[in-house]
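Duplicate of #3305? Posting structure anyway:
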């Protein structure tokens, strides 16, 4: 090969930059809410609790999702971070372009007041007891430039939308649990937030009342366009959204996507499919029920097919005895 040929093989600066860009960090997730590799470590009495251990989540604008998971899996910690009440230890947490890791105190206060809304499980925690329903809804608007008549009109409109306009002049202790939560949803939407977070909003309610509250959340999502992230233990509630995200041990593990499918006879039916979450590096966790059944440990063999990837247990490797003769297979323990 001549010196000239070798020269022509050396890539130019543009080509090197292009290659570097292609191999650098994978593309960031897109969405109104984006968490990547999110970590929250609590330190209490010298003990470290890793509440979130590299959680990934992306929620698109206008979506309504349910977050489920066992007690202690990190659901409330996630909501606390996304609503600006708590600060993550590491990773990425962005909501509507706000970086929740680097946000300063003052900006955080503004964020909590106008960018997001929050509904707690405890009905009494959402409303001030000495204000009427309408006054509760008007209160957050005092942080904005909306005048008194504008505030009153917006409160009336929200209470009407959520089916509790008849409660406008009543105090919280004169409302049922379901009415209180619907007024709380109105309060959380007062300043036209981009995202509404609700932590077990139906946790203290019976089934019929929970349905009403959940219908109010759906109405807020549909009619006000607010993106909704709701944490729930209630399987019936989580089945009413298009996407349910399950958190296990501080990470997103699986997602159930629901959609209406039409068969060849034009009959519509709701289908639900469960997916394992893959992070942007291509990592995913195989369910232990699968790996145990097929005795998959340490290594697996992958094969790329036209439309899927096959995963097989690795064959047992014969163990080499000291004399150099092959002996019993090593079961890769
Ligand atoms: N302030 C805190 N200090 C120390 N550890 C905490 C704190 N808050 C939460 N934890 C721990 O972090 C882990 C996740 O808690 P988190 O409240 O987020 O779970 P959860 O899924 O919301 O549970 P639940 O469904 O019971 O409300 C748990 O082990 C919990 O004990």
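Output from current build:
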């Amino acid at each position: 090969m001549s010196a000239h040929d070798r020269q022509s093989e050396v890539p130019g600066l543009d080509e090197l930059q292009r290659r570097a860009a292609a191999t650098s960090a994978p593309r960031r997730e897109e969405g109104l809410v984006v968490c990547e590799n999110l970590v929250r470590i609590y330190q209490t009495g010298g003990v470290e609790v890793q509440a979130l251990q590299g959680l990934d989540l992306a929620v698109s604008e206008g979506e309504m999702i349910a977050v489920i998971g066992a007690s202690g899996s990190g659901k409330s910690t996630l909501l606390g971070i996304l609503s600006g009440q708590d600060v993550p230890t590491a990773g990425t947490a962005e909501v509507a372009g706000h970086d929740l890791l680097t946000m300063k105190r003052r900006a955080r206060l503004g964020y909590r007041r106008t960018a997001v809304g929050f509904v707690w499980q405890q009905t009494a925690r959402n409303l001030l007891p000495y204000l009427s329903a309408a006054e509760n809804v008007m209160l957050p608007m005092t942080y904005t430039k909306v005048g008194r008549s504008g505030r009153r009109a917006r409160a009336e409109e929200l209470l009407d939308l959520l089916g509790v306009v008849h409660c406008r002049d009543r105090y919280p202790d004169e409302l049922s649990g379901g009415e209180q939560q619907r007024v709380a949803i109105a309060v959380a939407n007062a300043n036209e937030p981009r995202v509404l977070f609700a932590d077990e909003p139906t946790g203290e309610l019976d089934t019929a009342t929970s349905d009403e509250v959940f219908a109010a959340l759906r109405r807020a999502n549909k009619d006000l366009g607010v993106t909704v992230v709701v944490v729930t233990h209630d399987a019936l509630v989580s089945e009413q959204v298009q996407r349910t995200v399950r958190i296990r041990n501080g990470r997103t593990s699986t997602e159930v996507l629901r959609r209406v499918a039409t068969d060849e006879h034009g009959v519509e039916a709701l289908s639900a499919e469960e997916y394992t979450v893959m992070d942007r590096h291509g990592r995913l966790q195989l369910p232990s029920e699968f790996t145990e059944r097929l005795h998959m440990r340490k290594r697996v063999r992958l094969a790329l097919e036209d439309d899927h990837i096959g995963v097989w247990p690795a064959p047992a490797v014969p163990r080499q005895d000291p004399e150099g003769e092959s002996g019993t297979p090593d079961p890769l323990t």
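Confirmed duplicate; merging threads. The pocket of adenosine-5'-triphosphate is lined by residues 42, 44, 49, 51, 69, 71-77 (CB under 6 Å). The mean pLDDT is 86.
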